[in-house]
Prior knowledge:
alpha+beta, two-stranded antiparallel ribbon, 115 residues, single chain, four-stranded antiparallel beta sheet
Amino acid sequence: MSFTISIDVTKIDKSLLKSVTKKDGTKATYLNLICWPNRDGKDQYDNDGSVKHSLTKEQRDAGIKSEILGNYKVKEQQDTVFPSKFVEKIKPAPAFQNRPKPVVQQEEDSEEIPF
């Protein structure tokens, strides 16, 4: 599965761009976005949802609304190799591979809720 995203870059609120210096000393500028699904499924243009600025909790609490910058579509790919060929190769980090599994003990004949 993949997504295609189309946004109107003229609507980007430049104050939400975050400039950072990465560990290697290079500079980067980021814009946090959020994809919001349509309530009624696909719209008339086959879009699955909209793309907006991602706001902080403080901005949301202050009542700031995020403008819709564009839309996204979910693309189903029948020929993708990711699930079948690579999932079996994904393994937990070495620190977690030999960790004993937790044992859940339940008392028999107990009608009490365990929490």
